[in-house]
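seq as requested:
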Amino acid sequence: MVNKIISTIIRLIFLGIIILTSFYCLLAYPPFTYQQVIKLELVTWLPIFVKAQPYLYLVASALLIPILLPSLKVVRTKKITQVFIIANSFFSIVLIFRPLLSRLENSINSLVWCFITTLPLFCLIVIDYLSYYPKVVWAKNINEQEDKKVFLALIKTALFISLIYFAIFHSRLSDIDFHPTISQEVFTLVWSFSTHLVMFMAMFAIFNLIRALARLSSKAAILEFWLIQLLAILLVTWVFKGLIFAAIGFNNFALLFALIFAALLVTFFSSLSILLIEKPVETVLGLLLKPFTYQSSVNQVKQVCFLAALVTTTYLLTIKFVALDWNFLLQKLIAIVVWLFTFAHFYSSKSLTTKPPRVILMLLFALLSLISYKTISILENQIFWQKDNQSISLSQLIDKYTGYDISARLLKDIFVASNPNKSFYKFLQNSSNISSERKVNPVDINLVENLSNKETEKPNIFIFTIDSLRQDYIRDYNRSVTFTPFIDAFAKESIVMENSFSHYGATGLSEPSIWVGGMLLHKQYVTPFYSMNSLEKLLEVENYQSFISIDSILETIVKPSPNITQIDKGISTQSLNLCRSLEELKEKIINRTDKTRPVFVYTQPQNLHVSVINRENRTVLDKDNYGDFYAPYASRVKRIDQCFGDFINFLKSQGMFENSIIVFTADHGESLGEEGRFGHAYTIFPEILKIPLIIHIPNKLRDSIVWDTKAIAFSSDITPSLYYLLGHKPVAKHQVLGRPLFTSTMEEQKGYLQESYLVASSYGAVYGLLNNNGESLYIADGVNFQDYFYDLANDPRGRTNIINPEIKQKYQHLIRQHIEVLNLVFFNY
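struct tokens:
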């Protein structure tokens, strides 16, 4: 038995290295993950794995050799084992001298390598099957009590999972912006239990169908073994395609590679199960669950200890990944693993009851669970609670609850996705994350006709785009903020656009949209980019001396030029820090040789990025009390405020402040616990789209312009505004272009305003419309197949989704029209 345990551990190590290697290759194919995960090094341990992978693979391959020696002694496995050992050893050595992962590019070759790197594991699985499968002693007859055993285990699993996540919800009540009443808690728990029951009873029905089909064969147990594996492969395929691949924007070949990974995992663990078996097979399901169970026991103490350990592990992992998660992806995967281990435990533990339920009672219970779930679904929009002159429906309550009960959220997403508007969401997916394999020629974007140098004195231009800075963490947008006094002082000498947004959630497209001065095709990226880079064209024509932090995105979209001096050179994107950048910038400004040339500065520091805060263990930088604000984030905003204020004082001391256009903004905001969300991922909720936009304009320019601080504004309006302020006008009008925020007359400005504006995720098929001067937001989520509608005039934080069929039909049609304009007219795509 000890040898089998050691053998299992070595196989699991080999599995882990293969899966990580293959999945890394896959990440290099979608443009989003290549840019953000691989180039940006968003996951800090991945670069370490890339460097260590050849050596880890060599060690794992060496460890495999002694455990495969028994297979060399068997005639039917001797040749394939010899070939595998020789070929795999050769591949291991080649990797040492020619590492694979560090050479990957954003091309179809990465997908080819993704498949190739799975082959060694498939070979190992074949060897194990040839070695151990013939030794399995199958039961001659199907165990008639198996159905009842599975039924009871599934009911216990549904109840246990519901209680685990209800307890997690309760443990996080201090993080929640609403406090449910006892009746609301009862309803959510009943809904969660009924939702889990419906799913698990559906699985029970499928399991019974498999067993019924198996009974038709003379080798029922063997047929059941393969049919259950087929079912498992289909389920794991959905996990990869519908959950993991959808979240990372991998659509092309998604089904094929989901099947590959699913077949790999399912057959690997089934091969482990036949390796670990030591006696004739009593039940097929018991055999397949062998790798996920401990020794069966009626000892209640052991059972309680295992369940307590499972609860503790689930809680700790869920809480750990709350702020690290990619729109609940990791938490959903944790929930699936918890389902598996919980069911395996209840199935393998010997029941203390001696009388299993009758078949008719099982069917009746399954029917009642479905009826209770459907009843709650029908009443979701008819049951209301009144509190503090506000009403909340059961549907809205469930939306809030599932931000914390991730297991129920996963099931809710599955049920919603089972009947989506397929053509509309397919359209969103086809318009998103356009692959590098699909060639799109860049268009020439000209914000004005005949752009030429204006023989006038030029103001300096400073653009500070603080990555992930929320609007409501700046005092001028939220009077309860007390930690941004220097930005507040700057705002008093500047113009505060009170109704400002980003067109894009996340940096991938939001940063380029600033340089373009408008929206872009949903592709990372159309290259060469220069013909679309309106800001760089302006800087070249007007002979600006540029100081720019060249991050991983600007490497692609900004053309190298002798007029550009890089700041933060040699510093990775995720390490860009405003305070350090400004200190270097001061030195470069003082020491510049030609002080007659106007200065342009652009930097996008990462101080507030969720990955940076998590990398720094979510520490609070000082001992201040930040009240209801998220302290790790707020303390960093305070640090930014201090450094920014110091730099403004520097500009004043150099006599540059009054001759400078200074833009203080963000590329997007951040979720900091709203409805359980953290980060920005591929979502475009209000807290992510709302950004600060504060612009200082020299007095000599202000005297000849007008503006409307309450009109809707976007970060993509910055470049058109610079064109206008530098005398390049009229600025082109187009649905997908930004507008000048400052014009000679209000009448001219009104001509640029639109009734609705398209917004989108940078990384997924999620689009929306801001309507009526930003007073409402509609979101169509083509990843999770859900839509949202928020009345931002009365619900500025977007707490209550008031979607209905009429609203959905209207805005889905409008979103399609906007995207078609973007694709077909502007980019000729």
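The first helix runs from residue 2 to 27.
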